[in-house]
């Protein structure tokens, strides 16, 4: 009986880990291992380390390789459904690199 309760407890806990796809390597990872980039309600593109800003979000691993691919292929534009200029992309890249 006790064992069963523990197992069910673990099941619930597992469900709470939300997985997100990295825009660079396209792997699914737990949200907290990724950095969120958000298009805010007023259309600004921002790095959101807390993951709490409202708006449409995209996720990236915290490694240079994924950041590079994402910026180089302009994957943010598609993911956030927004036109990302080179200037914005570079600013985001800078912020991600310096987190
Ligand atoms: Zn990645």
Brief summary of the model shown:
With 99 residues, the chain is of the alpha+beta class. Helices cover 42% and strands 24% of the residues. Strands 4-3-5 form a three-stranded antiparallel β-sheet. Strands 1-2 form a two-stranded antiparallel sheet.
- SS strand fraction: 15-25%
Question: What summary fits the major beta sheet?
Answer: 3 strands, antiparallel
Structural class: alpha+beta
Annotated CATH topology: Hypothetical Cytosolic Protein, Chain: A
CATH class: Alpha Beta
| Small-molecule components bound | zinc ion
Tally of extended strands?
Answer: 5
The count of helical stretches stands at 4
Rg measurement, Å:
16 Å
From the structure provided, what is the oligomeric state, counting identical versus distinct chains?
single chain
Secondary-structure element order, as H and E? HEEEEEHHH
Relative helix content:
40-55%
